Amino acid sequence: MSALSELYQEVILDHHKKPRNFYKLKGANRSAEGDNPLCGDRIYVYLQLEDGVIREISFQGTGCAISRASASLMTASLKGKTQAEAESLFKKFHRMVTRGGNGSLDPAELGKLAVFSGVSEFPVRVKCATLAWHTLRAALKGKEEIVSTE
Ligand code: ZN
């Protein structure tokens, strides 16, 4: 394992053990539930959206290390971002975990989210890594139904 992927592993485990923004947000005006039956991951995302800006964001749920760490890092990355910025970050993140971290992608743009670049080598884990993001998008759109990766 390279030094970089070891560092990435450490960040993922840290966010799994001590997830950031892991609580039910009081005063949330948007929320959604995401389900990844393949792995058993279930994530709830709560948002306080004001004038198109994510003022507060939190999550709860159970699941594997990848799904929890991804939700934790996502919430940490999105506080204060506009809806359009969140959508743009989702697209970059999705491209990275489905096609790999190299090529057209600038890792600096993704910040800490780059720790998931290795996920592209494990297609079954892509759903774990993107579950929180799909749930976030449903919350932003105000959808009520449960988002499923299946
Ligand atoms: Zn999972």
Explain the overall architecture.
- With 150 residues, the protein is an alpha+beta fold.
- The chain has one domain (3-145): Sufe protein. Chain: A, CATH 3.90.1010.
- It contains five helices and four strands, in the order αβββααααβ.
- A four-stranded mixed beta sheet has the order 3-2-1-4, covered by helices on one side.
- Strand 2 (41-50) and strand 3 (53-62) form a beta hairpin.
- The longest helix is centred in the last third of the chain and has 19 residues, at 123-141.
- It starts with a helix and ends with a strand.
- The structure holds zinc ion.
- Zinc ion binds at residues 36, 39, 41, 63-64, 66-67, 128.
Choose one word for the global shape.
globular
CATH class: Alpha Beta
The total of beta strands comes to 4
**Any idea what the radius of gyration is?**
14 Å
Average pLDDT rating: 91
* Number of distinct helices: 5
* Overall CATH architecture: Alpha-Beta Complex
Provide keyphrases for this structure.
single chain, 150 residues, alpha+beta, Sufe protein. Chain: A, 4-stranded mixed β-sheet, 5 helices, binds zinc ion
Summarize it.
The protein is α+β, with helices and mostly antiparallel strands and 150 residues long. The protein is 46% helix and 19% strand.
Outline the fold blueprint.
Blueprint: H1 3-17, E1 30-36, E2 41-50, E3 53-62, H2 65-78, H3 83-99, H4 107-110, H5 123-141, E4 147-148
Parallel strand pairs: 1-4
Antiparallel strand pairs: 1-2, 2-3
